[in-house]
Design goal:
This protein is of the alpha/beta class and about 260 residues long. Helix content is about 45%, strand content about 15%. The chain has a 7-stranded parallel β-sheet with strand order 3-2-1-4-5-6-7, sandwiched between helices. Helix 4 links the parallel strand 4 and strand 5. The mean pLDDT is about 90.
């Protein structure tokens, strides 16, 4: 039997990277998946690929900063697939990067809204739906930035990602008795479009970005991929993790423990 057989899942940030790989893996493991991102064409291609492989998926385009999307995702899971068992609140962005005194207030607010407020909005609608199913699993994509290490220029990002860990712990304390597990997953430097393009946009040649980041990862001297995180997310949402809640699981190939070495 597949790990997520007969489960219904929401995956945000699903048009590429971690979200894309996770949606594919969840569908392969038996879940019906509601996928979301801002890019409709990429979502449509993902749904087509899942369905071609025999899975079930539906796309709901939107911006995770918008509360109407959070509600629409849950409503779609219920109306299309009968309920909700799993939510992977993965969407996020590095946002504006600058030394703290130079970071704009608008940039700060946008980064917090994209990474942290969006997770609150998701949970606000997901928790009641999970309770109706007798419990379920929430997962949030945080980061080792703001947890085990700080990086110059990333004050807003670090604050938002650290806030996700606090949100996870509170959700666990509030709803564990109702059968809801809440965990955070903390990727390191990933070989995903979001991780690479921000540095390229700042003027660093792509090959230099990749080579420099590969050198910083002790395990295999390579950046992680979306699939590395997807498999960890699958475990945390599966019955094998039924007694695991309130944890912050780092998936970074050892990068955070060797930061600066």
């Amino acid at each position: 039997m597949n790990a997520l057989e007969n489960k219904v899942a929401i995956v945000t940030g699903a048009s590429s990277g971690i979200g894309y790989a996770t949606a594919m893996l969840f569908a392969r493991e038996g879940a019906a998946v509601v996928v979301s991102a801002r890019r409709q064409a990429e979502l449509d291609a993902l749904v087509a690929r899942i369905e071609k492989a025999g899975g079930h998926a539906i796309a709901v385009r939107g911006d995770v900063r918008d509360e109407t999307l959070a509600k629409a995702l849950v409503d779609t899971a219920i109306e299309r697939f009968g309920g909700l068992d799993i939510a992977f609140n993965n969407a996020g962005s590095t946002g504006e990067m600058a030394p703290t005194p130079e970071l704009s207030l608008a940039g700060w607010r946008d980064t917090i809204d994209t990474n942290l407020t969006s997770a609150f909005l998701g949970a606000r609608y997901q928790v009641p739906a999970l309770i109706k199913r007798g419990g379920g699993s929430l997962l949030f994509t945080s980061s080792f930035v703001g947890y085990t290490a700080g990086m110059p220029g990333m004050a807003a990002y670090a604050a938002a990602k650290a806030g996700l860990i606090g949100l996870t712990q509170v959700l666990d304390a509030e709803w564990g008795a109702k059968g809801i597990r809440a965990n955070a997953i903390l990727p390191g430097l990933m070989n995903t479009p979001m991780a690479i393009e921000s540095r390229v946009a700042a003027g660093t040649p792509r090959e230099e970005v990749v080579a420099a980041r590969d050198r910083r990862v002790p395990l295999g001297r390579r950046m992680g991929t979306g699939w590395d995180v997807a498999h960890a997310a699958l475990f945390l949402h599966s019955d094998e993790a039924s007694f695991i809640t309130g944890v912050s699981l780092i998936v970074d190939g050892g990068e955070s423990v060797s930061w600066g070495s």
